Amino acid sequence: MSIYLNADSKIIVQGITGGMGSKHTTLMLQAGSNIVGGVNARKAGTTVELNGTTQPVFGTVEEAMKETGADVSVVFVPPAFTKAACIEAIDAGIGLLVVITEGVPVQDTAEVWSYLQSEANHAGTRMIGPNCPGIITPEESLAGITPHTIAGKGPIGLVSKSGTLTYQMMYELKDFGFSTAIGIGGDPIIGTTHIDALAAFEADPETKAIVMIGEIGGDAEERAAAFIKDNVTKPVVGYVAGFTAPEGKTMGHAGAIVSGSAGTAQAKKEALEAVGVKVGKTPSETAELMREIMKAL
Fold first, then answer.
1. Which residue numbers delimit the CoA-binding domain (predicted)?
2. Is 253 one of the annotated active-site residues of the chain?
């Protein structure tokens, strides 16, 4: 079992002919992903050779889905064109939309988010990102840029705002393995949230425990804590990046800005611990907390 992505997922890549798109499509193929084509309106009707496969290039997401049966799209297009690419995929009825692009204007993401909530989203498209590493179900499928060699399949679910911390946590717990790992992105507005992932992991019978990685800024972790208290029965460990961040300074991710006591790492740590989530002071300590839980299960 897994959440959102599995070996049967058929993936198209919006921007497959670009530098990043072609590079990471090759790596997704090496991870075992079922890539069925790509989209580039200017190169419709052509093909690209990637990792020993011939990938057809379609003019639109709708055409690609009709011809291939694709149900996942990974977006590797420049920030200025990301909103249009997302709207096109939603209109086509794609099931899962994974937006890797960073630097997308917040207003554009807000408009896409609003579109996802509207009646226009008949198919109920789920978006992950933007500004994220995507999603990996080890040994089955990768939709994004997570290195597929760092961990295999296992019983831990992982949801993280940070890409690099996703990779580190997978590596540190590779002896146990993961059902699915999702990097949800660190922008102020994102598609899939900690709460969405927590609910999916709770419902997945193969996921036995969950690691949740947050960071300073906003109140997503506090809201996740409230959700865990009322809805999650599986053990959860957490880590909050940014304990040493100076007040009022944006740190890396656009969403990681602290105002007064709101959004601080300490406030998030306390909210999580209040509902029984063990929170590590470092990623390695967090991994050790999960290791103890797994040994006891």
1. 4-104
2. yes
Task: Tell me the pLDDT tens digit for each residue of 45-73.
Answer: 999 999 999 999 999 999 999 999 999 99
Identified catalytic residue from 24, 148, 194, 253: 253
Q: How many CB atoms are located within 10 Å of the residue 72 CB? A: 27
pTM: 0.95
The annotation status of 247 as a binding-site residue, yes or no, is no
Q: Is residue 18 annotated as involved in ligand binding?
A: yes
Pairing of strands 134-137, 141-144: antiparallel
| Chain segment 122-149, per-residue pLDDT in tens | 889 999 999 999 999 999 999 999 999 9
Q: 12: which strand partners?
A: 37, 73
Q: Is 43 annotated as a binding residue?
A: yes
